[in-house]
Amino acid sequence: MKLFRFFEDRTGYLTKSKYESGVYQVHEHEGYAVDPGSVGMFVKSRLFGYRKPKKEHCVTVRVGDGTPLYPLQKNYLASKPLLFSDLKKMDNASFIKSQLDVEKNVANPSERIGILLTYGALAFACIFTVLLIPKIIPYVQSALEGNFGL
Amino acid sequence: MKNEINITNNHNIKVHKLIDKEYLILIGINLFSFLLFLFLTIFIPGFILFALFMGFGTIVFSIFSWLYSARKKLKKVYYLNKANDNNYYWVEVWHKKDDIDENTIDPSLLWNIQGKLTPVIDNTDKNPKPFNPHLEPISHYNPSSIDVARTLEHSASSRMLKVKEKGVKEQLKLLIVVGAFLGMGYLCIVLLESTGS
Q1: Of residues A55, A54, A68, the one with CA closest to residue A6
Q2: What is the pLDDT of residue B164?
Q3: What secondary structure does DSSP assign to A78-114, as a single string?
Q4: A103 lies in some domain
Q5: How far off is chain B from A146, nearest CA to CA, in Å?
Q6: What whole-number distance in Å separates Cα of residue A19 and Cα of residue A34?
Q7: Are B143 and B151 in contact (CB under 8 A)?
Q8: What's the CA gap between A33 and A26, in Å, rounded?
Q9: Beta B116-122 vs B129-130: how paired, if at all?
Q10: Which residues is A25 bridged to in the sheet?
């Protein structure tokens, strides 16, 4: 989902967010509650307005507030803002997802690195073996000739 | 400024008229050189390379000078519009830069959007007004954006739920990795020795 984020210092950013367990996540330290009523449209221009505009869904937020904005309401604020009790639902949904991931045995990043290392080491070993074959043949030949007179 | 804008092109400048005259002259010179070299290839075929170079240069120069001129002459404005009582839409509109002078425009309309001073106008009422979502301060009684983001953080629970592999599986994995690395080292030594001899 596209987010139009407004900071208190009058800076703004159009950012892509990731939907996860009822939260629009911008990064680890910033997320907004999913609220269907707050979703609007964003008509994005293309090539300085010469090409047909692109339409996509958009949520307007003010950075620091977990509740998305309702731009048509008074002061752009939601009539029913997010409560601390609502966080419980999100927390539970996210916990269940983590639990499922563990049950499915999804490798975490550190494990993935270990797996990659293993594959890397094996691949390098194979490459070196292949490279060594032409080097070893003369040794084998001379050893056979010296020992068995072949 | 129009009250209701729902298109992204407000400048109505034709594509070819956007480019600056000085650049047009340079493009003309480039194009003439290209045609000249192209004509000369009839007598000296080796000039085809020059002709291609000039042709490619003309295209690249035209594109970049057009983009530069567009950035110089046009300015982006964001409008918040009302579709109906429940739906809104933002529109990114390009205006002539002369129409929106940063020095004369109401400063309350200006926002620093993606690093550029850009007017953000609320068009949902009869009269356009500045868009200011921070008129009412953020309440401490409601969750902040960091509180919401924290609900997704469950790495501690994942670690707790994860049972370490029992038996020889893990040791075996480690043995394979160590063995592979040792093997690689040994092979390297053999390879280097054989190259030396």
Answers
A1: A68
A2: 64
A3: -SS---HHHHHHHHHHHHHHHHHHHHTTPPPHHHHHH
A4: no
A5: 18
A6: 8
A7: no
A8: 11
A9: antiparallel
A10: A18, A31
> Does the residue A148 lie in any domain?
no
- Would you call B153 helix, strand, or coil by DSSP? coil
Q: How many structural domains is chain A composed of?
A: 1
Q: Which of A21, A59, A65, A91 to mutate to test the interface with B (most CBs of B within 10 A)?
A: A65
A86 CB neighbours in chain B (<8 A) are 143
In a domain, A49, yes or no: yes
Closest CA to A29 of B146, B152, B138, B148: B146
B158 token code pair: 């994942």
Residue A125 lies in a domain: no
- ipTM surpasses cut 0.90: no
Which of A10, A26, A84 to substitute to test the interface with B, most B CBs within 10 Å?
A: A10
Q: Which positions of chain A have pLDDT values less than 50?
A: none
What are B12's two structure tokens?
A: 């109505």
Report chain A residues whose CB lies below 8 A from the CB of B135. 75
Q: Which two tokens stand for residue A137?
A: 């043949």
A124/B110 Cβ within 8 A: no
pLDDT at position B122: 93
Structure-block tokens of residue B15:
């594509």
* pLDDT tens per residue, range B129-177: 999 999 999 988 999 999 999 999 888 887 787 766 556 676 777 777 7
Considering CB atoms only, which of B124, B144, B151 is closest to A90?
Answer: B151
Q: What are phi and psi of B97, to 5 degrees?
A: -60, -30
| Residues 6 or more apart in contact with residue B147 via CB below 8 angstroms | A66, A84, A87
In terms of pTM, does the model score above 0.90? no
Query: Most B CBs within 10 Å: which of A43, A73, A137, A142, as the mutation test of the B interface?
Result: A43
Interface A–B counts its CB contacts (< 8 A) at 215
Name the residue range of residue A65's domain.
2-81
Task: Please tell me which of the candidates A29, A37, A82 has its beta carbon nearest to residue B142.
Answer: A82
